[in-house]
Fold these 4 entries.
Entry 1:
Amino acid sequence: MTIGFRTIKTAVGVSIAIWLAHSLSLEFYASAGILTLLCIQKTRKQSLAAIWERFLACLVGIALSGAMFHFFGHHPLIFIPLYMIFIPICVKLKLHGGIASSSVIIMHIFMNGSLDLAFLINELGIILIGLGIALIVNVYMPGIDKQIYQYKEEINRNMSIILCQFSRYLMEGYGLWDGKEMLILSKQLEQAKNLAILEVENNMTHRDNPFYFYFEKKQRQHQILERMLALVSRVDTTLEQGIRIGRLIDELGRDLQVGINLTDYQDKLKAIREYHKQLPLPSTRAEFENRAHLFALANELETFIEGM
């Protein structure tokens, strides 16, 4: 069992909120801890949204419950019409996440029997302490740059393996690769992009984050690799054209992890295309189909290189 950083923040935040509310001699002081608990989220953006949502919901709850208890009494059945009105209002105002936290304040008003100025100040104090402590503890978020860079290395390594397997098949006809790196790569890209989104929301930069765009680019390259795989698998014989493309793919795969010269690879691919143009027309249907697949593969390879 592991204790995450969010768990530690929650435990510390709840304790501080309760301690502070108790130190100020507020009634129902433990409820400040509940409000803090409900507002600690994964990212700063989510936390700020949750705090604002719960604050507004609490104000709506105080106003509505105070009025209904005043005019219709404090009978338990009053909660039926109260929530039939309160919940739709919160949903309409997009405050549905604050229904639970505001219910804590509504119960306080019900149990107190009246909503006078002193008790209103008490409840506002609980709200401000609970939400305020949540805001403070959520200011610090652990850096995830190290995890992101690790994903970048693993993704490039898997892409390199995939390209080298393509190359090996085209040059040697080796077809025993199980393709597991394709599945691993897909999962890694999804996890890495989710991590990048967390980084975006922690820094409140919307989506102009370089990590986010980097993994979006890698996802597009993964889609190209999937199309390349389909084309490579359709080539059922070793041809000189395939060997030349295979060599270029092998070189690309080896250089992928250390950085490549885009112009250099574009020139090499252009030279291969020129070689293809000088070849005589295919003499059999099988050769025609194989060369057509290689031509399409060269197009996909060009798209892959341009997206580097």
Entry 2:
Amino acid sequence: MADSTSDPTTTPSRRAHPADASTPTTDDATSPTNDAPSPAHRRPKQPPKKRPRSPRHSPSHGLRRRLLHPLPPSPLLRRPPPSLTQVDGPPLSSSLLQSPSVYQAKSVPVPLRTKFDVPIHITAGGSVVEYEISTQDYDIGFAVTAEREEGVTNVKESARVDAVTGKFLVGSVPCALVFSFDNEYSWFREKRVSYRITVTPPRAENVVRGRRLRAKKALEVVGEDRRVVEERYERAVEKRVELEEQVKRLKKELAEKVKSLDVVVKEESWLEKRREVRDEQIKMLNQRLKNGWEDEKSEI
């Protein structure tokens, strides 16, 4: 039966642990104590450490940074190469390939204005997932998503259902399948859902076939990355040779400038002393012309 009560607002959801899908277990964990240490055992407060001052960003500092990082990384270099562990997949003797895993529960309450999630972690590529969902009396929103490092994929779009079954194949792993039961639209009714989710690992021949497919795809990615690295390496070598020549030329020019500077400094010092001597001579000559000479006064 459909539940017609709905509202656009939402409330926080709760997520079930995969262990919740089986028989309930007792929680015998105890909370840690918060015994505060006595004053005699308290550590003395340490003075705050002074943060070192960052160096001034001079033009040479910026040049050094540009020389160390002359080119931005390409998208292929930003993307990590495929791991051989992911390419190999589970070993043929792994327990993951022996028997199916079943996650089930009956009459799980989903309170009004809430959402209930059942996450299941898949580590064997090629696993087949089958699910059977049913509710009591009223419908509920149901969706399946696959969460991976690169993002979230919608396996089954959200829809309001009374009962539904489905089956799909899991390709890239590891991933977390999230089976969502959404009752956020209901204002008055609690829903009860029952589910049975079966994860069947791939057969040995499928694992072998999947390994080869992943290896070929990985070889394409690694080969393309190798080509890009070779091109960037050649450009880096050319740039290094060019910069070494420029540095060599600049060092030679700098040595010549240092010699010229030394000559100019010596000339400046000599001219400064000569200027002082001339200023004193000009002063003395002006005094003689104005006041006359000492021997001339005695004669007059």
Entry 3:
Amino acid sequence: MTAAVIRGVKIFQEVGISAGTAPSGASMVGNFPPGDGDEEQNSPAPFRVIVGIAVYYLFSLLLFIEDEDHLKKIAAYKVVEYVESGMVLGLGPGSTAKHVVDRIGELLRQGKLKDIDGIPTSKKTHEQALSLGIPLSDLNSHPVVDLAIDGADEVDPYLNLVKGRGGSLLREKMVEGACKKFVVIVDESKLVNYTGGSGLAMPVKVIQFCWKFTASRLQNLFQESGCVAKLRTLGEKAEPYVTDNGNYIIDLYFKQSIGDLKAASDSILQIAGVVEHGMFIDMATTVIVAGELGLNVKNKY
């Protein structure tokens, strides 16, 4: 972020604005600088100030996004250190996990990794892995997975996760539930005090049949936590989002903690029409957190 601010200030100055001063030949009260009628020269000073500020913040934002992606890449390279030749790997989707798959493909091409079998948890990851030449398999052939690597939408202090805002929670839970080790990579913005603490969605996958009925039951289940249940939609027409397995997703939003996660999980899964939910309880063995100060590795045991 510091680099973004410094570069943003340079851009800010390049458009003719320095701290507390107007561009050369202009006053800050709206006088026009001398010129020959050129539109740029005759722009009022306050307008140029506004443009300069807008450019500054725009580039700061873009550079912050760039820095955030760089943090994800650092975390991804760290987690690949857990990968050894001959392993069966669960490969998750998401922006951070994408860097993991890229890195594994690179190490295979370099001959530094051999005899890897990947089990992707989404169609998108499947396509990415194929394009990189990573050999693929499935749980039918490999019911025990050596290592699964994935991101998360939330991580609580006990390493419980919320996942599935990308839509692949069922396949993710199947693969990651079959692994010996499950390593999660996130940036520090994903850390929360309690599950649902970000105020963002905790997804529940449901069948399409009578989804409104199912959504109503889910919302009533967590009424004391201020739950709001919404069907996930796409595009201007708000068409229902359909998962890789042909299901809908009901996003649950909580205003406060839902308490005992295992009890909440059992209650959700007892509702007819629910396929799976996005709480990954006691599943992560290691969480690698990327922040501005570096990497923080949290181990379950």
Entry 4:
Amino acid sequence: MDQFLIQHTFKEVQDSLKDIQSKRKRTHFYQKITWGITGIYLVGMLIILASSYLPGTDLPFGDILAKAQPSANNPYAQVLPFAGLMVLIYFSTSFFIQAFQKFKTQEMKTMANMVDKLFPGLEFTQGASAPKKEIQSSKLFSSLKSETSVYNFGQMRSRSKGLEFNLADIGILENDLSNKASGTLMRIPVLNMGLVLYQYVFKNLVSKKPEESLPYSFRGMFCWLKFQKKLDGHTVVFSRNQGVKLDRWSSFKFREEQEIYLEDPRFTENFIVYGTDQVEARYVLSTALMERILELKEKFDRPIFLSFQNKQMYLAVKNENGLFAFPSGNLERIQVLEELVKEIETALGMKADLRL
């Protein structure tokens, strides 16, 4: 892309980026206060529970706990402090929600303005329904069900009939092995409070950006486009990860699949392949295509997943921050735009790179 266009766009949105930076800091401040108070509340509850079950044990702040025990003179000894904390949580949460909404509104407007100026040949929409049909058709997400929550944070599509291209920034809340384990722990008394302390309180306190507190099983880019070869089955390619094997194995949806063993050692070191047909998978993943997939992974420099079936190709690229959301750190720099352009141009060039 022309560097002049990037510089011109940066000058136009520079004030907005500065405003977003300010709103994000304010939101982050309220986030830490909210979760800090919540953490104190939960820790206090845990200590009181422990003092009830372990009366003969020396616990931290034992004298204070003894005075906080209900008595005839003070039957509300435990109720009043926690009621006060609940009031503080209510007000801090209200401030946080208001600040978060203002921050997100400004972020969405600025992002839409940037994308429209940098990619005038593409249609960009926000607030559209998630492309759930395409996500399910890709067979890339083992635990995806009809009731699974899928979020769409922005979608691009080509206006030219010569290039069929769709790109979305999505978030998926699959009930995968990780979320299943968390769900099991949430049903166990005391342990569920410990999990909440870690999953929500601790993570939000140490986070460097405002969080929506949703445990996405996948957040990032999802693309789909036409593939020249007509296929009877499907072939899926994952960046090599032991979790992929476990999720695939634990799912009952892909029993017809088998692991595909390919001869290219560099490819098999980076990727694991599943398919319904060994011969068809080798037909799809030619030596030249495997090399180009490796190059594509290097360009994105993050885990990528691909799926080939019925003249359609799907690509998913993990991005914990999200494609159409601003990264943490200083936003008042042109590199913010350059990184966004690189991501989108790499996706746009995928058809040519893979020679599909």
